[in-house]
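ok trying this again, last paste got cut off
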Amino acid sequence: MAVSLMDTNFTLEVKDLSIDFITEEGNLNILQNLSFGIQPGEIFFLFLESGCGKSMTALALTRLLPSNLARFKTGNILFGGKDLASLQMSELQRVRGKEIAYVFQEPFSSFDPLQKLGYQLTESYLYHSLGTEAEALKKAKYLLETVGISDPELRLEQYPNQLSGGMLQRASIAMALMTDPKLLIADEPTSAIDVTIQLQLIELILDLKKSRNLSVLFISHDIGLVSYLANRIGIMYAGKLVEVGTVDEILDNPSHPYTKALIQAYPKNNSSKVRLGAIEGRVPLPKDYPVGCHFQDRCSERLSKCKDSKPKSTELSKTHSAECFALDKAHA
């Protein structure tokens, strides 16, 4: 899905990305024709349900998917004037962890339980030859304070199991920032921690975006976070990006039937007596993706051609587009 953002320089631009997963049953087209861009200092919120390709998308951007299982079929991943999809591994390793950093869902899995926090925070900084060990430790202390962890000198001497989940998630953000990346990929970073810590982490990410002009790809299945975090939103369903727009465009004027259903299913603060909507059925497995529109079996607006044909992107504005046959006539 292409969205026209005229004369825009993207930190990251994904064009027509398709990835197959190699299985005993044959190649499964897990991600299909993804196209989106993230501007400097922007939080792009990628919403998708479990089973829609969340982790595949996050890992595919720096080719962290296992090469014996995943095959890049088409597309480009443009970053810093280079196409990450075709870089030699030696060049790609200079980008990973330095210019693009990750914060993952489960903070305890982001750290080696046998290594002290100080070693793990400084490892990438030293690997990319950004300074001395003393400079790395100084920066690690500063970043731990920046993300709200007190007594950083003590924390650097501790092991991961000596920190709470919330503290460890903050430490994982500090670790990601050690190399001053241009892009932070946050894959469900708030789902494994309690609500109070979630709000603190959201405020932290917003502060970092503002103070560092940091670009953020925030991947989540919690659409309630959108209005707090995002500049723009991409709605993904069963391996396809079905709608992209600004926060106001998506929340106030959703155009794809799936986006409409999602918003109707989410509780509003002032509507406790209103019956919530429900989306019948389940997200299809990749081996069961329909020939036509992937949402057809659950869609209340489906047309006869949805069964056998894939809809193309309809441009609704310079920043808003959706893939749905029902939009063709209205915006012809």
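PB: full thing came through this time. The radius of gyration is 21 Å.
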